[in-house]
Write a structure and sequence with these properties.
By secondary structure, this protein is an all-alpha fold. It has 5 helices and no strands. Helices cover 73% and strands 0% of the residues.
């Protein structure tokens, strides 16, 4: 088999994963797209390793070793990423990335903490504003 076939397939997989990362709103789908991109890289590593082992006298199979390393990193990444997404979904009630962009603390124009005021009961917020 020629080297062009797995290289083109890998490029298509990588472009599909890149589109998924840039266009998706759901964090789970973004993680799946990152996994697709990593699998495209793995396919390239193995294809070039096989192609270079035919031309070289020494067969070190370094591409396959790097592929195993990438698979281990991808497994750790998906485990940690999924744990973070589940924790955010449990706290915020959504996995929509656009709604999660404002995670930094916001301060009002008068210097008060906006998140602290919204966390209080409506009656308590009015009392604290009246006393201020």
């Amino acid at each position: 088999m020629h080297l062009a076939y797995p290289a083109v397939l890998s490029a298509l997989l990588f472009c599909t994963g890149l589109y998924g990362v840039l266009a998706r709103r759901n964090a789970i789908l973004v993680l799946m797209s990152v996994e697709l991109m990593l699998n495209a890289v793995n396919l390239n590593l193995v294809a070039f390793d096989v192609w270079l082992s035919r031309t070289a006298e020494e067969t070190l199979h370094s591409g396959q070793a790097l592929t195993l390393f990438t698979i281990a990193i991808a497994a750790a990444e998906i485990g940690i990423g999924l744990a973070i997404v589940l924790a955010v979904h449990r706290n915020r009630g959504t996995a929509d990335i656009d709604k999660l962009r404002d995670t930094a603390e916001r301060h009002g124009p008068d210097g008060t903490d906006h998140d602290a005021l919204t966390a209080e009961q409506p009656g308590e917020a009015q009392k604290s504003e009246a006393t201020a």
